[in-house]
Amino acid sequence: MHYFYLALAILGEVIGTSFLKATEDFTKLWPSLIVLLGYGAAFYFLTLSLKVIPVGIAYATWSGIGIVLVTVISIFLYKQVPDWAAIVGMALIIAGVGVIQLFSKTVHP
After folding, report:
1. 2-14 confidence digits (pLDDT tens)
2. Could you report the per-residue pLDDT of 15-50, keeping only the tens digit for each?
3. What distance in Å separates the CA atoms of residue 89 and residue 73, rounded to the nearest whole number?
4. Residue extents of the structural domains in the chain
5. First to last CA, the chain
6. Can you give the C-alpha Rg of the chain in angstroms?
7. 6 vs 29: CA distance, rounded Å
8. How many Cβ atoms sit within 10 Å of the Cβ of residue 102?
9. DSSP line for 35-103
10. What is the mean pLDDT of the chain?
11. Global pTM value
């Protein structure tokens, strides 16, 4: 259940971050509310996941997956296509999260 909470935290953060540009410096009401709700949900569900998942592992997973998802969303929403170096870097981040999840003994204490 704690990884489900972590997934919800990632989803909230991705939604919040994806709408940051649309707030236009927090001058647009609805995008600003979505950002606040997204981050609020992200931190709430992250705290629930931290009851079992170590903070470093949770944060590495949250930020790594979040980076990739926000990048994919920004391709479609804002036409911000990453170059090959950014894609390689993100692949390394995903590989790092995979190594942590598969091989680290701190993932499941």
Report:
1. 999 999 999 999 9
2. 999 999 999 999 999 999 999 999 999 999 999 999
3. 17
4. 2-103
5. 15
6. 15
7. 28
8. 8
9. HHHHHHHHHHHHHHHTTTS-HHHHHHHHHHHHHHHHHHHHHHHH-----HHHHHHHHHHHHHHHHHHHH
10. 94
11. 0.91
